TrEMBL record:
Pfam families: DJ-1_PfpI (PF01965). InterPro entries: Class_I_gatase-like, DJ-1/PfpI, Prot/Nucl_acid_deglycase. This is Type 1 glutamine amidotransferase domain-containing protein. Belongs to the peptidase C56 family. HSP31-like subfamily. It comes from Hymenobacter lucidus. Residues 45-67 are annotated as: Disordered. Residues 24-222 form the DJ-1/PfpI domain. Keywords: Glutamine amidotransferase, Lyase, Stress response.
Length: 226
């Protein structure tokens, strides 16, 4: 069971002068769900090397069992520090792909032609594609085999407009995940803010927020075991 995890390389939060990147829990929780299930993991990012961590996800208030485990795990830290360049990976080598969120992917992965083509390849091959929180934003330009948006007519979830308002970044992000999923024809639904909410349609798994990262990873494993 070979699983690819794709992380952002973008570290600037718009024009605010603040840093962004990937959200620690959204990487750590799925990482250990997959590891504990015996999966072989490859971590990739557009630039390769150490992906930028959203500093807010490192706050004491944002820590979970998975993030604490990661901080005590030199092997996991080493793997994260040495992500392979996204341009070097092929969907043919993996059984599934998982995209952790954080605001970073809205800037780079959503527009990254390699990432877009990679997701299209995974999906066309009938392999699970999972994205959580802001990472469903990576589906923005992804097309299905018929040339229409991949999410069109499909049940999807992602970071809500009200969650974005709560973190006061509505006017900073390049687009709102909820609005984008609706405008590209997705059958968007959501749970309460900050509560785990995951939607699976066929081989597409999308989760709403950081709390959804572990259940989204578990859904991906279920698909792989089918």
């Amino acid at each position: 069971m070979n699983i690819l995890m794709v992380l952002t390389s973008h570290d600037q939060l718009g024009n605010t002068g603040h840093k962004t990147g990937f959200w620690l829990e959204e990487f750590a929780a799925p990482y250990y769900v997959f590891k504990d299930a015996g999966a072989t993991l490859t971590l990739a990012s557009p630039a390769g090397g150490q992906p930028p961590l959203d500093p807010k996800s490192d706050d004491p208030s944002a820590q979970t069992d998975a993030t604490k485990r990661f901080k005590a795990d030199p092997a996991a830290q080493q793997a994260l520090a040495n992500t392979v360049q996204l341009a070097t990976v092929s969907a043919a080598d993996y059984d599934a792909v998982f995209y952790p969120g954080g605001h970073g992917p809205l800037w780079d992965l959503a527009e990254d032609k390699k990432s877009i083509a990679l997701i299209e390849s995974f999906y066309a091959a009938g392999k699970p594609v999972a994205a959580v929180c802001h990472a469903p934003g990576v589906l923005r330009h992804v097309k299905a085999a018929n040339g229409e948006p991949l999410v069109k007519g499909k049940k999807v979830a992602g970071f809500t407009n009200t969650e974005e308002e709560a973190v006061q970044l509505t006017d900073v992000v390049p687009f709102l995940v909820e609005d984008m999923l609706k405008s590209t024809g997705g059958n968007y639904s959501k749970g309460a803010d900050w509560v785990p909410y995951v939607v699976t349609e066929g081989n597409l798994i999308t989760g709403q927020n950081p709390a959804s990262s572990e259940p989204a990873a578990e859904e991906l494993l279920k698909l792989l075991k089918k």
